[in-house]
Amino acid sequence: MSAEAANPGAHSRRRGRPRIDLRRLGRAALLGTTGRDRLPDAISHVADVHRAHHPDADLTILHKAYVLAESSHRGQFRKSGEPYITHPLAVTLILAELGAETTTLTASLLHDTVEDTEVTLDQVREEFGSEVCYLVDGVTKLEKVDYGAAAEPETFRKMLVATGNDVRVMSIKLADRLHNMRTLGVMRPEKQARIAKVTRDVLIPLAERLGVQALKTELEDLVFAILHPEEYERTRALIAENSTACDALAAVADDFRGVLRDAGISSEVLIRPRHFVSVHRACLKRTELRSTDFGRLLVLVGEDADCYGVLGELHTCFTPVISEFKDFIAAPKFNLYQSLHTAVAGPEGAIVEVLIRTHQMHKVAEAGVIALGNPYVPVEGAEPLDGERADPTRPGWLSRLLEWQQSAPDPDTFWTSLRADLAQDREITVFRADGRALGLPAGASCVDAAYAQYGGEAHACIGARVNGRLATLSTVLRDGDTVHLLLAQDSASGPSPDWLDHARTPAARIAIKGWLDTHPEGASTPSAAPRRPAPVTADRPTVANAVVDLPEATVRLAGCCTPVPPDAVIGFAVRGGAVTVHRAQCPGVTRMTETGREPVPVRWGDTAECRVTLIAESFGRPRLLADLTEAIATQGAAIVSATVEPPSQQRVRHTYTLQLPDSAGLPALMRAMRDVPGVYDVSRAQHPAATG
Predict the structure, then answer these.
(1) What's the average pLDDT block by block, 10 residues per block, for the chain (692 residues)?
(2) Catalytic residue chosen out of the listed positions 48, 97, 101, 116
(3) What is this structure's pTM?
(4) Active-site annotation holds for 115
(5) Does residue 566 have a cis bond before it (omega within 30 degrees)?
(6) Active-site residue among 21, 115, 490, 498?
(7) Rounded distance, CA 286 to CA 143, Å?
């Protein structure tokens, strides 16, 4: 199957579609009117496209790079029989169509020279500067002679590390793979399948994360044609059978134009046919496709505010499908994508999906990071940070990838982890205790957050607070959660094997496996499962400041909730003529009521003194008990009784019954106890009590 025969993007070249057509200039345009042996004017096609995006671009360096590439590749031919220079020219043309700046195009012309010719990196640096040299080196493959079977994963590792410093490295690689996929028909079927699988598992997710949709969609269709030929043929036939499907969209588009014209909103309404994979996915979701399912309507406007104006007009004049509305302008996707998504019912009831965005948003939606130009051009008046170039396009997922790959020296571990990491197609943002944001893949747990924040120190993590509440390490985090991770003081702590069941990120999994491999004997480690609270024994003293209307009744504060003024309280008569006083929200109140006990009215007297039972959760360390006792005494409270449970998983529970001179001092006392190093929680006793 030749690249020309497998043309899954052909149906998309229809009237009115704004998608960047990467096939517009084919081999004939590259070769020009001259023969195969001579290509003196080939670079002019790239120059024309480049000037359309960058009218003031200096083309001298492009001509210079072409001369070096053509002369160094002279005599080399591709498997298709074409002169090899057609490949770097095609790659450069793809990037030029996407609006890449001159430095990227220069490097793309030279991207195979160091790998396949006698040209050296030193020569590239001397002729074109260190920036072009860095990009060329970033996409140069490692030799199989030196790396053997590890050459491919180690080449990708090298490329990703280079991308961490300059995202243009990956832009060139994606364009390079797209042209190779277009011409893959000359390869053996087994080699086509191998390359297509790597493209599916690694390159397409990278194109998605960098926002380069124009490359991603064509790569998806090419992979689809190779790996799923039967489904591809069925989809191709379905599209051919519905060649007039866009007529229905055209009628709705005319209605849209009229509505927006009457509202005074300047806009373009365009038909955007779905590509092959998109149609295939729609078939899987629906048993039968409607004519409007073969495309969407795209509305382009000038300003952000106009997007919402268009949305309001369309929802007013047409029936909206509310469940289909998504606002990616207020909350952009992690790959820079911005747009409003909605769906409305057309005049005859047909459901039409609509995308609304500005022209700039559309450019970024198609070309992603490539549309941002050179992120390293200094802004006038801005001072560099410590002499380093700050890359505004380096997203959080890339930073995480670069961190965990350092802990994966084994190529197989890196390759497997990379594919698993790239399979996570959605991100969430959680907030650390210090207010800083932490980016994680959707489905990440507290285990993942611990390793993302602390690296190897997360081995000592014993729990977490999620939105202020104690949570287990297995807790799955949601977008916007605040996570306060709790670390044990004992450096001998280590992760439990069950942490692997809750770790989604490669960084966490690699670190946990590494620790477990080096500590086969295990250690005293916290489980990710909840820990059952230990029972608390508290006395029930007679208290004078709780008053009941029963003569000679003995009043006792319930040890399960230890109420203090001004808590709302309820009393219950128990054996021996005593009345036990509970806080109104105590679980014991519910149990008493369910057993038919009649409540006894209780009020607080004038005496300010009170008793309360507090539970302090802490990490085990020397002098902890002395420090807590000192903090309690400093607040003027007297210790009536105290119990300390044996340490469990590096955690210690202290239970204190305290006599306070005034209940108003309770909040300050609890704050003072929490401030003791090693203490991570102080709470009033809330435990089941006997019903008497």
Answers:
(1) 39 41 42 42 84 90 92 90 91 94 94 92 94 94 77 88 88 94 90 93 91 93 94 90 81 92 93 90 80 89 94 93 90 85 84 94 89 58 39 64 81 85 80 83 89 86 82 85 80 78 88 84 52 41 63 75 79 78 82 81 74 82 81 85 75 84 83 84 64 40
(2) 116
(3) 0.68
(4) yes
(5) yes
(6) 115
(7) 47
